[in-house]
Amino acid sequence: MKRRLKLREAGAGYVQKRYYNRTDLTNMSNAPERFELFILGDGEKKCTEEADTRTPNSSIFTFNKEDHTLGNMLRAHLLKDPHVIFSGYKIPHPLFSKFELRIQTDGEITPKEALVACCRNLVSELEVFSREFTKEFELRKMGLGVLGRARYDDMAQKIVQGSWGFMVWVGYMATSLAVDLNSRDTRQLALRFRYFSNCKRCVPLAMDCP
Known about the structure:
Layout: H1 2-26, E1 47-51, E2 58-64, H2 68-78, E3 84-90, E4 98-105, H3 111-142, H4 145-160, H5 166-181, H6 184-196, H7 202-207
Antiparallel strand pairs: 1-2, 2-4, 3-4
Family: Belongs to the archaeal Rpo11/eukaryotic RPB11/RPC19 RNA polymerase subunit family.
Organism: Monilinia fructigena
Subcellular location: Nucleus
């Protein structure tokens, strides 16, 4: 009985110690501010291009204040271009919101032209998604009645006023519609949103390259 009591006391002290250390980690005084993850500094460019001398027709684009969301999306859609031989990205350090995108083409177009074309294609796909989603959403509202329409409109207004704006509202409602309507087309729209939610940022990023 005494041995069990000692084990329990030791276990309780260990849990308290871990909880105390965890509290200290969350209150670090030297932690960077959250806005530094997405707001550019003074004189900092969103995207820069550097020629890769190791392989022909290749460039390395550095995107500041971005992460895997944009990097993986650009990489995947660049590989659909027949003129793109290689497309890959890496994040040099996990604590800094920056990634490097390497593009190699067959020589008919430059890496920058391939990147700009990819960004424009992503924007056009998002516009198609926006129209299709609006149609599905309005059809859904028509079947909800007066109270249901008021609930959806109120929820949409609150989310739009948030920091993420319209795109978070679209993603949330697309997921809701996919569950409620059980429609194959709507599920596809919700799935596509996961990949195209941020692609409106692509063209300004690519055009910012020198």
